[in-house]
Amino acid sequence: MLELFTVISITIIVAIVPGPDFVVVVRNALMGGRLSGIMTALGIALALGVHVTYALAGIGLLVSQSIFLFNTLKLIGAAYLIFLGITMYRTASSKMDDVETKAAISPWRALRWGFLTNVTNPKATMFALSVFVQVTSPATPLLTQVGYGFIMAGGVFLWFVLVTMFFTFTPIREAFLKIKKSLEQSLGVLLAAFGIGIALTTSSTR
């Protein structure tokens, strides 16, 4: 019971603390509508499933113990976030045509954005490891650990669905769309800043 409570608590904390995932969900929800936000959230949940899988397999522990592998992962994730941020900034437009916006963010593209943003995020790696290395024990049954993985992915998904619902509430979305270009540019800068921050934390010692 204590393990379950700890897993749920960590999931809630990790989900609500703003980061790259939050930025991408908000951006896609505002620019592409509710479906885009939900598909982005689904992509994030699927990517978290990848982190959970390799954490259970022990690969995540190997990466966390190797300075070279861990820093390589961080730099790949940082590069992707910086690229995504620059792209978001450069493609920002003041147009408010819902048809154009939804066409530009197809459900598949939104899912891919969410998946790639999370799967390349080293913080998501450490989230999975914190549960399966520090919370669970060798005595914890594999099926129970898999269940924890579903709780983690499901909890994060539900949080970002709520975020999507909030930002696509008509009065709120219309208010944000009035400052569409500056908002999208700001989100792009923020995403790139997350990437730069990750890149700067790479080091030769841990």
Question: Care to describe what's here?
Answer:
The protein is an all-alpha fold and 206 residues long. Helix content is 83%, strand content 0%. It is built from 11 helices and no strands. It has helices spanning 2-16, 20-32, 34-57, 59-65, 67-90, 98-104, 107-119, 122-135, 142-167, 170-177, 180-200. The longest helix is centred in the last third of the chain and has 26 residues, at 142-167.
Present the secondary structure layout.
Layout: H1 2-16, H2 20-32, H3 34-57, H4 59-65, H5 67-90, H6 98-104, H7 107-119, H8 122-135, H9 142-167, H10 170-177, H11 180-200
Low-confidence segments, given as residue ranges, are 98-103
Pattern of helices and strands: HHHHHHHHHHH
Percent strand: under 5%
Classify the helix fraction into a percent range.
over 70%
Features:
single chain, 206 residues, mainly alpha, 0% strand, globular
In short:
By secondary structure, the chain is an all-alpha fold. It has eleven helices and no strands. The chain has helices at 2-16, 20-32, 34-57, 59-65, 67-90, 98-104, 107-119, 122-135, 142-167, 170-177, 180-200.
